[in-house]
Design a protein that fits this description.
The chain is α/β, with parallel strands linked by helices. It has a single domain, classed as Glycosidases (TIM Barrel), CATH 3.20.20.80. 45% of the residues lie in helices and 17% in strands. Bound molecules: (3S,4R)-3-hydroxy-2-oxopiperidin-4-yl beta-D-xylopyranoside. The site of (3S,4R)-3-hydroxy-2-oxopiperidin-4-yl beta-D-xylopyranoside has 8 residues, from loops.
């Protein structure tokens, strides 16, 4: 039995290698990976996946796309149906983040009904491929089911609903989750608590501490994180997180990490102060992480990025990775999808795109090589 499994893995690995190795040829007509990729493919160095290039104390992850719908947008389900996608997922990464499958509207679609199947499948895949899982997310203003958002609950009921949800979901995956994004996007850009968040609005910001306490009881081994976008440069939003983190730690709340999603756009300049931001949280004794990195750009007419845009994109990816590598306890680096084929970016940011490290056919962009070479040099 064991032998058969080993053989299966070897075959998969070989075909993944072949699939990747022939791609520069397919991509040659486009302004893609260029001369350096051709040279590397000749040298054979491109066969080393990201996960093996990385230092041992840094997890390299991706969001895992699966089926469903949100804002009238239907998603495909590559995790289940796209075999090359699964191959690359298993080969390149040693951490997996369900992109949607653990969000309330997916996992808790009715008040008394949970739907664990899609999340279970990812957790199982991760185990089979030597990957850890980042749980995402427990306390958020978005992608909540209508029964929750529109229900008329007393404060006591709402609190009980959140507590039960956390114990049920975190408890189900107890011992199998590396990090949970317990609280997601809880501050506005001005550093005030986000009143769109039903729990914060109805129950007050103290609910954040409770969510961490409940999650810790449900899975004492999981590292519990604050997670947000727009925290790549210093400013009032970062200040708010720093103040909250200090308060939670002073109150002995089980907070273990602070993460930057790092959804970047080339419109706003390189994230050249990110290391400094992460260091402030490292100094508090917290882990830090990059959880949702992508780098979108304005697409020229015809939709194909220029070679220059691709170089800039690669530099952004590298800057974020360098920031993580520069900070002692930055222990997880996740990109929000690895192929443009399933990226959320064109859906949410019309006219921007090409935000991931691989083209739709999984061939590699300069950003991929920038990550891999930076990891290898840090190892
Ligand atoms: C996005 C997903 O990628 C999309 O598929 C979904 O339609 C909307 O949410 N911040 C987060 C992620 O914390 O959960 C979001 O993911 C992107 C922004």
């Amino acid at each position: 039995m064991i032998k058969a499994i080993r053989v299966g893995v070897a075959v998969l690995a070989t075909s993944a290698f072949l699939a990747v190795a022939v791609q520069p040829v397919q991509a040659a007509g486009r302004a893609t990976t260029g001369a350096s990729a051709d040279r590397e493919s000749r040298l054979g160095t491109r066969t080393q996946p990201l996960r093996w290039a990385a230092p041992h104390d840094l997890r390299i992850g991706t969001a895992v796309a699966g089926g469903g719908h949100h804002l009238e947008q239907e998603y495909p389900d590559p995790f289940t149906y796209d075999r090359p996608y699964r191959r690359v997922l298993g080969r390149e990464f040693n951490s997996a983040s369900p992109e949607n499958q653990m969000k309330w509207e997916f996992i808790h679609p009715e008040r008394n009904k949970y739907n664990f199947k899609p999340a279970d499948a990812i957790v199982r895949f991760a185990r089979q491929h030597g990957q850890v899982v980042r749980g995402h997310t427990l306390l958020w203003h978005s992608q909540n089911p209508a029964w929750l958002q529109e229900g008329e609950f007393t404060k006591g009921e709402l609190r009980a609903i959140l507590k039960e949800h956390i114990f049920t979901v975190v408890g189900r995956y107890r011992g199998q989750i590396h990090q949970w994004d317990v609280a997601n996007e809880i501050f506005n850009e001005n550093g005030e608590y986000r009143q769109e968040n039903i729990f914060i609005r109805e129950l007050g910001p103290g609910i954040v501490a409770d969510a961490f306490r409940w999650a810790h009881r449900a899975d004492p081994k999981a590292q519990l994180f604050l997670n947000d976008y727009g925290v790549d440069w210093p400013g009032v939003k970062v200040d708010a997180y720093e103040a909250l983190a200090k308060q939670l730690l002073a109150d002995r709340v089980p907070l273990h990490g602070f993460a930057s999603q790092a959804h970047l756009s080339m419109r706003y300049g390189a994230p050249d102060q990110l290391a400094g931001v992460l260091q402030r949280f490292d100094d508090l004794g917290l882990y830090t992480a990059i959880t949702e990195l992508d780098v979108r750009m304005d697409l020229p007419e015809g939709g194909v990025p220029t070679a220059e845009q691709l170089q800039t994109q690669a530099a952004y990816y590298k800057t974020v990775l360098d920031a993580c590598l520069a900070v002692e306890d930055c222990n997880s680096f996740t990109i929000w999808g690895f192929t443009d084929k399933y990226s959320w970016v064109p859906v949410f940011f019309p006219s921007e795109g090409a935000a991931t490290v691989m083209w739709e056919d999984f061939s590699l962009k300069p950003a991929y090589f920038a990550l891999r070479d930076t990891l290898a040099a840090a190892r």
